[in-house]
Amino acid sequence: MRVLVTGGAGYLGSHTLLELLGQGHEALVVDDFRNASPVALERVRALSNGGAFGVERLDIRDAPRLVEAARAFRPEAAIHFAGLKSVGESGARALDYWDVNVGGTVALLRALEEAGCGLVIFSSSATVYGEPAEPRPFREDDPVRPANVYGRTKAAAEAVLRDWAAAAPGRAALLLRYFNPVGAHASGRIGEDPRGVPENLMPFLAQVATGRRAALRIWGSDYPTPDGTGVRDYIHVEDLAEAHVAALARARHLAGAGGGAEAFNLGTGKGTSVLEMLRAFEAVVGRPLPHEMAPRRSGDVAEMRADCSRAAADLGWRARRDLRAMVESLWRWQSANPDGYGTDG
Ligand code: UFG
Question: What separation in Å is there between the alpha carbon of 274 and the centre of ligand 1?
Fold first, then answer.
């Protein structure tokens, strides 16, 4: 298929792009590179042996240019990653988050309409669920009640996509709710490259291991979890990339059956605590990593896990890579590229 990939130079975008090319799809990457590096695309090009993709440097809210790019490429489907993604900064930059994440989604859908494209795979997040009401994995029909600005913009973009899909027959929107994506491509050539001090556990831990950060601070050791630290459902980025390709087939099927919108949790269903992750990382690196206990981080919950049975049944997909593969691949990427793509200044 011809697939338009917004945010295709980013962490999840670049891994999915590589998987798409490997599966014989054609792609057009649309990215403004505000939080991504063109080097990632050069590496995808090399890893895919000169893969069939074009690149348009633009902000998805630039409607005339986006329409022009979509009309010229004539996508059969779009995978929409482009957006702002930091929970921590979203409160202070609320209007930017609404503008890019929701306004950008509306702009994309208008451009797809102009280009006659009715299939969209959307990069959503487990954060749309907010606090768990009961101690069990989240299911897709659990209530959506996000507890931060970032999550509210993701939930709103999901609503926009549902309304868009319902507005004409044959349109399909798949809302992929990621849990905690981690790791890197097995080659170690592409990976996560956050700007500034990483907010998330895995990139922070990787930078502690290279010596770029002094010590990991463990935010909270008094949670009602087996070892007192927060438990999350980490998923390998390559598994996530495969899920997007599976979602394309599902979207086409859904559109053929009249269309509509469907949400899918993407995780492993397994929970890992911060301390377990630290130990797994130390085992791969082969030495202890400096860390200290710190108070809870505001907005964090004790535990989040995905019930992934819908994805298994309807996408025919399940995560295949374990914690060790996640940590090993991250370490391969980080140790070979201690400054990421080298654009951090
Ligand atoms: N943690 C630390 N120290 C750190 C960073 C994180 O102890 O320096 C802990 C957190 O308290 C939490 C766990 O590691 O228990 C994971 O934290 P992350 O920041 O890596 O991930 P979150 O689960 O907080 O957030 C992630 C994504 C969000 C998404 C959310 C959905 O970053 O984009 O999952 O649940 F919205």
Answer: 9
Task: Name the band, by pLDDT with cuts 50, 70 and 90, for residue 135.
Answer: confident
Q: Which range marks the domain in which residue 148 is found? A: 2-182+233-267
Ligand 1 pocket check for 278: Cβ under 6 Å:
no
pLDDT tens by residue, 202-249 = 999 999 999 999 999 999 999 999 999 999 999 999 999 999 999 999
Please state, in angstroms and rounded to a whole number, the distance separating the CA atoms of residues 26 and 228: 46
Query: Does 57 map to a domain?
Result: yes
Ligand 1 pocket test target in 124, 297, 326, 327 with most atoms within 8 Å of CB: 297
Mean pLDDT over all residues of the chain? 96
Q: Is the pTM of this model over 0.70?
A: yes
Q: How many domains does the chain have?
A: 1
Q: Does the residue 167 lie in any domain?
A: yes
In a domain, 161, yes or no: yes
Q: Please give the pLDDT value at position 52.
A: 86
Residue 22 in any domain: the answer is: yes
Q: Which CATH number is 35's domain given?
A: 3.40.50.720
Left, alpha or beta for 33 (phi > 0: left; psi -120 to 50: alpha)? left
**CA torsion 137→140→146→152, rounded to 10°?**
150
